[in-house]
């Protein structure tokens, strides 16, 4: 063998060895790693958040107390949460899932719990102790009515009515009773109204009282209310725990940068880090299968909550915002000071999960934790009254009142410096075609700095 041939053979051997080592490095998954004190363990699947449960994430938006033609609601959102926490200890008795439709007279004592979305009746098993068998997963409700009445012997009783207020034919879906001690916890709030503010209906009078009809009433505080502006600082959420939870253990993950966004990918999964690394979007390209079985709403709720719990991913205060079995999607919205964050430039306040064939097909969430900036110069905004908002929406040409799906007070989140600070501004919002947008009241003063 001459020298040139020997060189060629050695070169071929070296190239082959290099290819083998390259493939081995690509597929190598270390079984353990020495970690210095304080350093994050590389294979952790937990964030520095909390686990959550269904009953905490479906808290009512509002309790409305109806008495002698007037209606009231809690002024402080913390009082609403405290009442809901007490409700979780109650038991539903004498449950009837085929109730007669109700009617209320002007003297009725009724408390209405308004939920942000239609929920399966089965959710009541999570909120209360239920004395009957399993409740329906297909019948839905969006309001609970607690009714204080008296029988022919003047004995006091308390009923609970689960209602779908969007159903014009048979809105009542379930009737039950609760113990007098439980009912009095709720109705005693009317004895001292210091914690309550009067409510008015967007479309005029509150039709619940003196009517046999239950409508999807939108309640507004009659007078002006004030909420603080806030400045928030952010702490980044580590990507490794989410990556390890969503990608298979032995997956070969490639990393790249596309249009300034970081991307981690396998053959069928993609994880994009977006918007100055403040938001994550995960996608799983699931192969098509024949006759897929979509998840019902209750399964969507429990599955989405458990999937976030797997990496302890509830890193701020979230509540259910919407759920759809048609789209197989559950969306949760961040809240602050008891108010929903209804607007931002990048939707960083939203956490959503979309499913296909029982697997997460899309997962969108923030990659930052929001915390109050520690300084004392917080200002307070006094907002237009509910009466002013109602008059404006009734008389303006800017909005069609029949197309308004909701009106509420919430926060607008605005970024001040990239990745450093955000400001929260309270204001009125209106829901149009399924989306919340700031209510533009050119003719009215939207807010006033009072402190």
Automatic annotation (TrEMBL):
Looking up Gene3D superfamilies in the UniProt record yields: YycH protein, domain 2
Sequence ranges assigned to domain Regulatory protein YycH in this UniProt record: 4-440
What is the name of the protein in this document? Regulatory protein YycH domain-containing protein
Q: Which organism is it from?
A: Halobacillus halophilus (strain ATCC 35676 / DSM 2266 / JCM 20832 / KCTC 3685 / LMG 17431 / NBRC 102448 / NCIMB 2269)
Q: What is the lineage of its organism?
A: Bacteria, Bacillati, Bacillota, Bacilli, Bacillales
